[in-house]
């Protein structure tokens, strides 16, 4: 039985749909970094996942460089020293990315300018106009 990763109350992904691969981390770190594969490459195939089709469509259409042309999301986690922490970090980042890109946007209700605001704007314009007229040269 595979573990289930819960994304929201109505959305979940089986852990078997996520491919995790241990790799060597980049950057400085002395001798340890050359011997230990502590970084994690997470690969999540959006096309072959158990997610509903509308959500797959949203995820595939988002403009993210981590999603390749085959519809595979690739996350590289190498922030921590241990493989287990990097594994948890990669899964957490995947869950956060799915949540962020499947949010339903509220429909925008256009607002109207109130009568009081229109009156204040008109008064300000008249005041400004009078001030500028007083700066002009006097004509006979």
From TrEMBL:
Segments forming domain Prokaryotic-type class I peptide chain release factors: 24-40
InterPro entries documented for this protein: Pep_chain_release_fac_I, Pep_chain_release_fac_I_sf
Region (Disordered): 103-140
Basic residues biased stretches: 104-123
Alphabetic keyword roster: Hydrolase
One GO MF term: translation release factor activity
Pfam families in the record: RF-1
Biological-process GO terms, alphabetical: rescue of stalled ribosome
Listed Gene3D superfamilies: 3.30.160.20
Family: Belongs to the prokaryotic/mitochondrial release factor family.
Protein name, per record: Aminoacyl-tRNA hydrolase
């Amino acid at each position: 039985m595979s573990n289930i990763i819960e994304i929201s109350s109505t959305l979940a992904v089986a852990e078997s749909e996520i491919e995790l691969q241990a790799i060597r981390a980049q950057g400085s770190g002395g001798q340890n970094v050359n011997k230990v594969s502590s970084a994690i490459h997470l690969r999540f195939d959006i096309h072959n996942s158990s997610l509903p089709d509308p959500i797959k469509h949203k995820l595939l259409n988002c403009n993210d460089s981590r999603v390749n042309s085959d519809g595979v999301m690739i996350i590289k986690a190498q922030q921590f020293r241990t493989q287990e922490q990097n594994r948890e970090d990669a899964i957490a980042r995947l869950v956060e990315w799915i949540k962020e890109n499947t949010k339903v946007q509220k429909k925008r209700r256009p607002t109207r300018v109130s009568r009081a605001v229109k009156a204040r704007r008109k008064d300000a314009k008249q005041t400004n106009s009078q001030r500028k007229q007083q700066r002009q040269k006097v004509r006979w």
